[in-house]
Q: What sequence folds into this?
């Protein structure tokens, strides 16, 4: 490998046969290039879709109530079901061990927010402190609602980034008084949400305050939970599904709802959606890998073809070299050394070009479902090595055969 | 230098077996300049290929400089070719992407000589054939006669025991042929053993001994008075 004489010989051969070298290199470089770009965009799609799913905690279970569609135990259909603080308290006590975050929500209908001359209609909800994590919100300024606010039924509120921009423009909202339907609340925090603007046009107040001030009594609109994750995703999913069906039957029993009534209690288990999402991501990734591997195979076939042609083209030269005293091994190593050198250089060129493209284009790409395409460097390096190895293997057979040709046969080739 | 006893060679072509050499007995002393003649199909090229270890005989013995040449594997054959033999071909067989100098240096490369020594030695041989000024030209920039002279320099480069020339003037016009023959005669004068396969009478008469082959047998083997090529140029 470090035989200087052989390197000189090979570099000379390469420099005197530019077209041949270029063609071999091109098929390798383009194979790697396409593969890296494909894998990069596969990753980009995964990132993009993931961020769409990050609006809420990925394992959130939401419970909401509706209207009965079936009569049960003498009660007529069409009854409006409303969950209460009691339901919530019973559930969080019963599942205390399993729950990670929990909150009930009281929604204030037609919430109009007023600050100075600015006003707007936003979705305003009374929640517990854990709700921040159920909604996957990050604080930009100030703090979220805490249990102290809740106990004191304090008139404080947390607003989304968009609400802040609408009402306050460039002013600092913290400590300002905003009216919700005419009642003064003090802003204590501003949050952002990966789900974007739609999720940031909301405001939150303590649940207790909302129920008292806006006449909710002990009614709650919906419940949100997350469970502590288990060791495996499968176990977490199983527990989550079991938990969903247990609360469903508990609530149906308590509110006298027919067990087969599907409209009175609704449960939305994000984790099941998450599973579908991961399946989708898995499929996308598999697809890109399959396409990528096919590309590599095409590259390998291309390299093999070119190697065959090269050996064919050099048959006479090989005959001459053998007549001058070249040993079979030196012929094989000459061809392999050259092919490995060329494919390696070309492979890394393709790798560097494609990664540079991803680096440049990636962050500037602003599409909903493609975000920050990138590729695992180790994967890319491995594919380069696979291609180089495949090129060497592909070159070995014709090289070996060429080395075995009788020099007299090779010399007769015209 | 070369001793051949009862050499047989057949080729199988499909179902037929073609008996090309039917028992050749023949020896060459050091410093001889021998031409092997015969019509096409007489087996002269086959004989030369066997002498050149490019092909193997079916039967018979072949001794080169006291070394029995038999049961060669590819590796040893390559070593022997490099050490004992220099080839000159009708179609020159230069490597077309290498300069004249690098072509002459090839056998030395396979001897494991360092690049600088190789270049010096190759240059010396190019000078000998009168092409020092053409050292860095590619084969396609050279005339036929020049190419053959590069090939002769290459054949000499490894300082072989025997030069084997297969129709060395076959692709050249008469004048150039005589120039090449003059060079070959000069090399022979210095003591190198040379075998030439040819079907041209005038070329054959420029050697010192003519061996005539017909249908795989030597029918005639006579020493002749050498005609100096220079007298024709």
A:
């Amino acid at each position: 490998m470090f035989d200087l004489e052989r390197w000189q010989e090979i570099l000379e051969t390469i420099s005197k046969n530019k077209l041949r070298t270029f063609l071999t290199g091109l098929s390798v470089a383009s194979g790697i290039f396409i593969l890296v770009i494909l894998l990069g965009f596969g990753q980009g799609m995964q990132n993009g879709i993931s961020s769409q799913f990050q609006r809420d905690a990925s394992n959130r279970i939401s419970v909401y109530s509706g209207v009965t569609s079936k009569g049960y135990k003498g009660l007529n259909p069409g009854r409006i079901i409303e969950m209460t603080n009691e339901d919530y308290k019973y559930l969080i006590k019963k599942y205390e061990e399993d729950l990670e975050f929990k909150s009930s929500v009281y929604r204030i209908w037609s919430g109009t927010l007023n600050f100075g001359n600015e006003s707007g209609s936003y979705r305003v909800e009374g929640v517990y402190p854990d709700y921040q994590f159920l909604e996957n919100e990050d604080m930009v300024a100030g703090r979220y609602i805490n249990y102290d606010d809740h106990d004191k039924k304090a008139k404080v509120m947390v607003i989304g980034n968009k609400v802040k921009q609408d009402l306050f423009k460039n002013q600092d909202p913290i400590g300002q008084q905003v009216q919700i339907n005419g009642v003064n609340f003090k802003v204590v925090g501003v949050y952002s949400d990966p789900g974007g603007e739609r999720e940031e046009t909301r405001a939150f107040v303590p649940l207790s305050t909302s129920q008292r001030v806006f006449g909710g009594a002990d009614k709650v609109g919906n419940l949100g939970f997350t469970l502590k994750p288990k060791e495996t995703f499968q176990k977490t999913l199983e527990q989550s599904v079991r938990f969903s069906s247990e609360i469903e039957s508990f609530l149906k029993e308590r509110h006298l709802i027919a067990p087969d009534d599907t409209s009175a209690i609704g449960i939305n288990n994000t984790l099941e959606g998450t599973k579908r999402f991961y399946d989708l991501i898995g499929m996308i990734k598999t697809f890109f890998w399959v396409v990528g591997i096919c590309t590599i195979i095409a590259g390998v076939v291309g390299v093999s073809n070119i190697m065959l042609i090269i050996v064919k083209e050099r048959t006479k030269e090989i005959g001459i070299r053998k007549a001058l005293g070249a040993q079979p091994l030196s012929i094989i190593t000459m061809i392999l050394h050259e092919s490995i050198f060329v494919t390696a250089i070309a492979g890394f060129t393709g790798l560097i070009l494609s990664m540079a493209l991803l680096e440049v284009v990636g962050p500037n790409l602003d599409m909903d479902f493609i975000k920050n395409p990138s590729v695992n460097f180790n994967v890319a390096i491995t594919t380069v090595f696979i291609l180089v190895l495949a090129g060497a293997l592909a070159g070995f057979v014709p090289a070996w055969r060429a080395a075995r040709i009788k020099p007299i046969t090779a010399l007769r080739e015209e | 230098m070369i001793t051949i006893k009862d050499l047989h060679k057949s080729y199988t072509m499909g179902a037929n077996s073609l008996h090309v050499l039917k028992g050749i007995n023949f020896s060459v002393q050091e410093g001889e300049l021998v031409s092997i003649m015969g019509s096409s199909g007489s087996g002269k090229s086959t004989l030369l290929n066997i002498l050149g270890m490019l092909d193997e005989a079916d039967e018979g013995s072949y001794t080169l400089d006291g070394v029995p040449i038999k049961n060669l594997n590819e590796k040893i054959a390559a070593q022997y070719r490099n050490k004992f033999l220099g080839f000159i071909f009708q179609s020159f067989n230069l490597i077309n992407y290498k300069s004249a100098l690098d072509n002459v240096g090839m056998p030395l490369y396979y001897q494991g000589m360092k690049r600088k020594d190789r270049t010096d030695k190759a240059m010396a041989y190019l000078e000998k054939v009168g092409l020092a000024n053409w050292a860095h030209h590619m084969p396609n920039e050279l005339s036929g006669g020049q190419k053959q002279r590069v090939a002769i320099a290459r054949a000499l480069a490894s300082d072989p025991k025997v030069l084997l020339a297969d129709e060395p003037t076959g692709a050249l016009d008469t004048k150039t042929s005589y120039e090449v023959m003059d060079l070959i005669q000069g090399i022979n004068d210095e003591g190198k053993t040379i075998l030439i396969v040819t079907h041209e009478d005038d070329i054959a008469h420029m050697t010192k001994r003519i061996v005539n082959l017909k249908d795989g047998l030597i029918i005639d083997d006579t020493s002749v008075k050498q005609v100096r090529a220079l007298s024709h140029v």
About this structure: The mean pLDDT of chain B is 89.
